[in-house]
Design a protein that fits this description.
With 402 residues, the protein is an alpha+beta fold. The chain is built from 14 helices and ten strands. It has two domains: 201 residues, no CATH class; 190 residues, no CATH class. Strands 2-3-8-5-7-6 form a six-stranded mixed beta barrel. Strand 2 and strand 3 form a beta hairpin. The two termini are 28 Å apart.
């Protein structure tokens, strides 16, 4: 009986009787579902690609784990160094000072965040995308800044600047501490909060400028490739005093990544409306098909087919229409995504987006979610027409004249 249900469903669908445009209506409904699935899949892949690109740039600029917003004296620094050496997941660690400062270039003054780090850690613990590579380790009077800040100051490597620390301890006569530096490099992350506001300076310059003595403001940890941040965090925390709190780069920029997730969710919902609109085409196709097959439905009922069997025939037709469209759309989308990931034929202006091609990434979970959502929408679109067919009166259906 199951094979009979499937066979009748296929036969009814491809029938070319008086309402012959039913088949074309089914084709259009299939194409609508296919376009919807393709659009959702492509949008998810693009958003995943840009999110991954953003994560790569943030993780390269920031450290994997950080202890921040606390003054670390020499005793705490020694404990942290000991913990870092003893934990296999930790590859390196760097102490830093981070304060607000003013950069002066002629009459141009810019308020920035000055991050003083150990010179040899720039390029290991901190891995910003450099526009101009450092030809030598950062010197005591060197500075590395972002492209947007360099453009506003109109400087390039080799130019001299003056740094002023208005928040540090004051010298005699109330003047703030200052120091002259040379631009040694320019980095570009594509993230304005980094490119326009953050500068790296050597630890020696930072201690002189901020009058920090032997204390530092925090420590950054670089984990070995393949290490799990949570496991490393638990091991480090177990060896350090309770007042020292570790945070990951994702937690430090939680608002940014939450916004990206929200954008992905909203985009998926909006594009899913294409599938919903196509589902109305499925429903209308089935209604027209029922109008054409009223007499045949009556004959089936007279031969002993139950209302449930009749409903299953038309429900199968709706699922077949939507299913073919969904499979076609997803196969096309997956093919495009993997082709773009391999060959990158969809190009982007690198000067604007920092990538030469549209980044795409797709996970199995995304495909499963799309299959579930599209399957639910298609099934719901098939329910009402199937119920209409099953409720037709046996006697009226047999006597129906087209």
């Amino acid at each position: 009986m199951k094979n009979l249900t499937l066979g009748l469903g296929r036969r009814f669908l491809v029938s070319r009787k008086r309402v012959g445009f039913v088949s074309w209506s089914a084709v259009m409904a299939m194409l609508g579902v296919a376009v919807g699935c393709f659009a959702v899949l492509a949008a998810i892949a693009v958003l995943n690609g840009f999110t991954n690109e953003l994560e790569e740039r943030v993780s390269g600029f920031e450290s994997d784990l950080r202890i921040a917003n606390i003054s670390l004296d020499e005793n705490l620094q020694a404990k942290i160094k000991s913990a870092a050496v003893s934990i296999p997941e930790v590859e390196d660690a760097s102490f830093y000072l981070e304060r607000k400062g003013i950069i002066i270039r002629d009459d141009n003054r810019q308020l920035v965040t000055l991050k003083a780090v150990e010179s040899d850690k720039l390029g290991s613990v901190y891995r910003p995308f450099m526009e101009s590579e450092l030809d030598r380790p950062m010197e005591k009077s060197g500075i590395v800044m972002g492209t947007e800040l360099a453009a506003r100051l109109q400087v390039r490597p080799g130019d001299r600047l003056r740094l002023v620390s208005p928040t540090s301890g004051q010298l005699a006569l109330g003047f703030p501490t200052w120091g002259d530096v040379e631009v040694q490099g320019v980095f570009r992350t594509g993230i304005p909060i980094f490119d326009d506001r953050v500068c790296f300076i050597p630890m020696e310059m930072g201690k002189q400028l901020f009058r920090a003595g032997t204390s530092v403001d925090g420590v950054d940890f670089l984990l070995r490739e393949g290490s799990t941040a949570k496991i490393a965090e638990d091991k480090i925390s177990a060896l350090l005093p309770e007042e020292l709190t570790l945070t990951s780069w994702r937690e430090q920029h939680g608002i940014l990544f939450s916004a990206m997730e929200l954008e992905k969710l909203v985009g998926t919902i909006v594009l899913s409306l294409i599938i919903i609109v196509a589902s109305f085409g499925i429903a209308s196709t089935l209604i027209m098909l029922i109008m054409e097959k009223v007499r045949e439905i009556g004959i089936l009922r007279a031969m002993g087919a139950t209302r449930r069997k009749v409903a299953r025939i038309f429900a199968f037709q709706g699922i077949m229409i939507g299913g073919i469209g969904a499979v076609f759309g997803m196969i096309t989308g997956i093919t495009l995504i993997f082709a773009q990931m391999k060959w990158g034929f969809l190009k982007l202006p690198e000067t604007i987006y920092l990538v030469s091609a549209v980044p795409m990434a797709l996970s199995l979970g995304d495909v499963v979610i799309l299959i579930s959502v599209s399957g639910a929408i298609i099934s719901l679109a098939s329910v009402y027409p199937a119920r209409v067919a099953s409720r037709l009166s046996l006697t009226e259906a047999v006597r129906f004249e087209k």
